[in-house]
Amino acid sequence: MKQIILWLLLILPWASLFFLKMDTVRRYMPVALFMTVIHTLSYQAAYHYGWWNEANSSLFGWDKVVPVPWVYGPYLVIVIWIFHFTFGKFWMYLIVNILLDGGFMYIVYPVLQRVGLVSSDSTMSTIVIVAMMIGFALIIYLYQLWQEKEFKQTSETYK
After folding, report:
1. Which residue among 13, 36, 49, 133 is least packed, with the fewest CB closer than 10 Å?
2. Are 77 and 16 in contact (CB under 8 A)?
3. What's the pLDDT tens digit per position in 39-76?
């Protein structure tokens, strides 16, 4: 049953992208992939320094350090949805991220721990993890601002 849930966790978020225009997905896919790189590096650092361990979220056996269902499923797709609804409205973006990150870590994550889908091994407090997630959100917002500027300059150059 756990494997089915992990597969659904990987596939269903991607299916939700059919509800967006392809231009929107193309516009925000680079920032979502950038966030995936950031998440991958943070999971590797967490593994190395013993901050947390997500071996319970392994889908393939080789993904014990970076849980593929989470990082390449909902984490990636949620970035696209959040940017779709909030990009250009920084304070709304920040509030949405604080609410989602806090809600995930304080409400959803404990439920997932009880079910056995995620680990309860962590040396970091929940508030530190939420702060780290908000920091990542700020970094990717700056990245998207840069991307928008570059795309605008490139399109003006080719006109």
Report:
1. 49
2. yes
3. 999 999 988 898 887 777 777 777 778 888 889 999 99
